[in-house]
Write a structure and sequence with these properties.
- Strand 1 and strand 2 form a beta hairpin.
- With 154 residues, this protein is of the alpha+beta class.
Length: 154
């Protein structure tokens, strides 16, 4: 077990199997020293536990936990591309999409769920640039979607 996976375990988390793509794409692509993940939904065993818009059917607190789950799924996608999460030199960028009610403006707080997980698990290597974007709807009516870009050390 890698040090990153041991840290996840100490937080009571298990790295899931990589989520199967919903369409014609792959979960992650390596290009040179970088891995780019596809957008990761908060799927657990292939299913969404919560659907709807943040600020309407989904509370910001629930959505923050869902963003954390998205980041965990993104780490699984990275592992599928490089085999060992200990090879992560740093998280470069996180992009979070939040399906938002028309008056909801707390997207940064929601995406903090993903950012905080990456920091807890990777320490300084988890510090990253980020975008948090409100959108009208996401695939499967998911409340949150997160993608990450990481640099890999050889």
């Amino acid at each position: 077990m890698s040090a990153v996976e041991e840290k996840l375990s100490s937080l009571g988390l298990t790295l899931p199997a990589v989520a199967a793509p919903l369409a014609s794409y792959v979960p992650a692509v390596r290009s040179g020293s970088y891995v780019f993940t596809a957008g990761q939904l908060p799927l657990v065993e292939g299913k969404l536990g919560v659907t709807g818009k943040v600020g309407a059917e989904v509370t910001p607190e629930e959505a923050k936990e869902l963003a954390r789950l998205c980041a965990l799924n993104a780490l699984a996608a990275v592992k599928s591309a490089v085999g060992d999460l200990d090879r992560i030199a740093r998280v470069v960028k996180v992009v979070g999409f939040v399906a938002s009610a028309s008056d909801f403006t707390g997207q940064p707080g929601v995406v903090n769920g993903a950012s905080e997980l990456l920091g807890e698990v990777l320490g300084e290597k988890g510090v990253h640039a980020r975008s948090a974007v409100g959108v009208a709807v996401l695939p499967l009516d998911a409340p949150v979607e997160v993608e990450i870009q990481v640099e890999i050390a050889d």
